[in-house]
């Protein structure tokens, strides 16, 4: 009986963590509302984001530092990569974000403010200095 109770508590705790972890899944407008990014969970358990809509879908990745990629379309690009969920901090960490406006990739973490799963806070930074990065807000929407 005691073993069953402990198993049940562990199972319920795992369900709660999973629900929090997956609350980031969905489609978001970028800050300027010029594109929509779909956040999804890959088979490796990590979270990624792909541009699925743009006001200017013909726009190319002209600022990419790799000359071979400067003619690649931004539409369909994977810009959010490799995030893990940290249940203790209630945020997605250890990922990167690519900014096609300047061709740079930043370390990044994401989170929701308490009780608000409509605004995703996204903060890119360099050299491990989370306090010195740039934060933007993405708004949940539909495709």
Sum up the structure in keywords.
143 residues; mainly beta; Lipocalin; 8-stranded antiparallel β-barrel; 14% helix
Describe this structure in words.
- With 143 residues, the chain is mainly beta.
- The protein has one domain: Lipocalin (Beta Barrel).
- 14% of the residues lie in helices and 43% in strands.
- The protein has 1 helix and 8 strands.
- An 8-stranded antiparallel beta barrel has the order 1-2-3-4-5-6-7-8.
- Strand 5 and strand 6 form a beta hairpin.
- It is globular.
- About 10% of the residues have low confidence.
Shape: globular
- Name the quaternary structure: single chain
| SSE string | HEEEEEEEE
- What's the CATH C level? Mainly Beta
Q: First CA to last CA: what distance? A: 48 Å
Question: What is the structure about, briefly put?
Answer:
The protein is mainly β and 143 residues long. The protein contains 1 helix and 8 strands; from the N terminus they run H-E-E-E-E-E-E-E-E.
Secondary-structure map:
Blueprint: H1 2-21, E1 26-29, E2 35-41, E3 47-54, E4 78-86, E5 91-99, E6 104-112, E7 119-125, E8 134-141
Antiparallel strand pairs: 1-2, 1-8, 2-3, 3-4, 4-5, 5-6, 6-7, 7-8
